[in-house]
Amino acid sequence: MPTIGGRRLVARIETWPVAGSFVIARGAKTQVDVVVVEISEAGHRGRGEATAIYYHGESAESVLAQAETMADAIAGGIGREDLLRAMPRGAARNAIDAALWDIDAKRTSRPAWSLAGLAEPMPVQSAFTISLGEPERMEADARAAASVYPLLKLKLAGEGDIDRVAAVRRGAPEARLIVDANEGWTGRDVVAEAAALLPYGVELIEQPVRVGEDHLLDGLRSPIPLCADESCQDRADLARCVGRYQAINIKLDKAGGLTEALALAVEARSLGLELMVGCMLSTSLGIAPAILAAQQARWVDIDGPLLLAADRDDPVRFDRGVAYPARPSLWG
Predict the structure, then answer these.
(1) Which among 211, 153, 167 is positioned nearest to 185, based on CA atoms?
(2) pLDDT (tens digit, 9 = 90+) per residue, 132-180?
(3) Which CATH topology does 124-324 take?
(4) Could you tell me the sign of the dihedral formed by the alpha carbons of 91, 307, 101, 123, in that order?
(5) Which residues are catalytic?
(6) Are the CB atoms for 193 and 185 separated by under 8 Å?
(7) Cα-based angle 63, 67, 70 (whole degrees, multiple of 5)
(8) Low-confidence ranges of the chain (pLDDT < 70)
(9) Would you list which residues are annotated within the binding site?
(10) What letter would DSSP give residue 195?
(11) Hey, CA dihedral for 105, 329, 153, 55, is it positive or negative?
(12) How many beta carbons lie within 10 A of that of residue 7, not counting itself?
């Protein structure tokens, strides 16, 4: 890539196999393609990883191409705040933003949390995802997972969801449960569906209706908090969430990086919204900065590396679903 200043950007696509398959209402995945950005300067190297937001029409190839267009800007010394104005939200900006945090942490010998003006991060309890399937399969998966993970997130689809949640509760009677409707409750009685989940101890319902149809939630009083996922990407989306959702799910790939994610968290909390921090399928390189964003979150779902058949040589450490911050900087 061209270099006109002190920093050099290179990017590539890597393919990582999923452990078994990862199934949601939109389909199954047996592997994930991630885009890795590296920024080097004076013997230091910063790395960032991003996963394409498929429901935005992104692909690994389009994310790679978009990241590579920023090579001259990186060489010219563009910083994280200017990057917010120079690039649209999305996975490409996330990968570059993460690499900038990483190289600045290494260059200054200061942890990324310190550069961000945050307190030293603490371990966070992450959910473990139970893929969408027939109730019997989800029950068996939940039974196996609950021996290790105290918080489970269930992928739902609409028809038959109550049976799925009931089956999971049979398999994991002591686990905490959150569910992701993946827009599958559009056209259904959201309040009635939520009320039917109350006996199973469900704490949160993600994205019950399709993006753009959030007005269907106007005036509803769900007995379980509703969380905007696809309906909330960055700060520009907060206005349509207030009064309809009680929480938002922050994902670095959606928001376009940790810089925007931290600002989004502050503004969302000021508006009375609870926080969830989630992830796409990814390795530990993509998860490490999310731990910083997750420090103030009520719910955390950053199990991307746990769903892969293998992880990086320098993984985020998980113990019973608890993710421990990487040290001394975000990526070692």
Answers:
(1) 211
(2) 999 999 999 999 999 999 999 999 999 999 999 999 999 999 999 999 9
(3) TIM Barrel (3.20.20)
(4) positive
(5) 155, 251
(6) yes
(7) 155
(8) 1-5, 21-28, 327-332
(9) 180, 206, 229
(10) H
(11) positive
(12) 22
Q: Report strand pairing: 299-300 vs 274-277.
A: parallel
Q: Measured between alpha carbons, how far is residue 149 from residues 4, 113, 320, 332 in Å?
A: 49, 27, 5, 26
Burial of 151 per CB tally in 10 Å (0-12, 13-18, 19+): buried
> What pLDDT was estimated at residue 23?
58
Q: Give me the pLDDT at residue 328, please.
A: 54
Q: For the chain, which residues make up each domain, given as ranges?
A: 8-109, 124-324
Distance, CA of 63 to CA of 60 (rounded, Å): 5
Q: Torsion angle of alpha carbons 184, 187, 188, 190, nearest 10°?
A: 80
Query: Quick one: fold of 8-109?
Result: Enolase-like; domain 1 (3.30.390)
- The rounded distance, in Å, linking the Cα atoms of 273 and 276 is 10
**Two tokens at 330?**
């975000």
Annotated binding-site positions for Mg(2+): 180, 206, 229
Q: Is the whole-model pTM more than 0.85? A: yes
